[in-house]
From TrEMBL:
Taxonomic placement: Eukaryota, Metazoa, Chordata, Craniata, Vertebrata
Coiled-coil blocks: 72-120
UniProt source species: Equus caballus (Horse)
Name of the featured protein: Chibby 1, beta catenin antagonist
One Pfam family linked to the record: Chibby
Biased composition (Polar residues): 1-10
UniProt-annotated stretches for the region Disordered: 1-26
Length: 125
């Protein structure tokens, strides 16, 4: 027995048993969801007193609190009308700008022709 020798020798760990004693890992997904309660339903949240829920990849406003469905539908229709009106007005502005640029170009051409005619008439005198 050494005086300052290596007296610490840990015991070897026994081999592990199976990873899980439960057979739930062998079940299919739907059975597991029923057994473990993994069906949470649709996610919902409350922002500024308005309830929102996540359905089909979009957040949808609920009836509680904020605007009811009829009001939301009316607002959507009004928004659509305003967007169409805005698009029409943008088109009109574009047409007016095209007309203005065409008139300006014609005006510059007429001024140039007038200047040329004036210079020709001065040479004759």
């Amino acid at each position: 027995m050494p005086l300052f020798g290596n007296t610490f020798s840990p015991k070897k760990t026994p081999p592990r048993k199976s990873a899980s004693l439960s057979n739930l890992h062998n079940l299919d997904r739907s059975t597991r969801e029923v057994e473990l309660g993994l069906d949470y339903g649709t996610p919902t949240m409350n922002l500024a007193g308005q309830s929102l829920k996540f359905e089909n990849g979009q957040w949808i406003a609920g009836i509680s609190g904020g605007v009811d469905r009829r009001e939301a539908q009316r607002l959507r229709r009004r928004n659509q009308q305003l967007e169409e009106e805005n698009n029409l007005l943008r088109l009109k502005v574009d047409i007016l700008l095209d007309m203005l640029s065409e008139t300006t170009a014609e005006s510059h051409l007429m001024e140039k022709e007038l200047d040329e005619l004036k210079s020709v008439s001065r040479r004759r005198k």
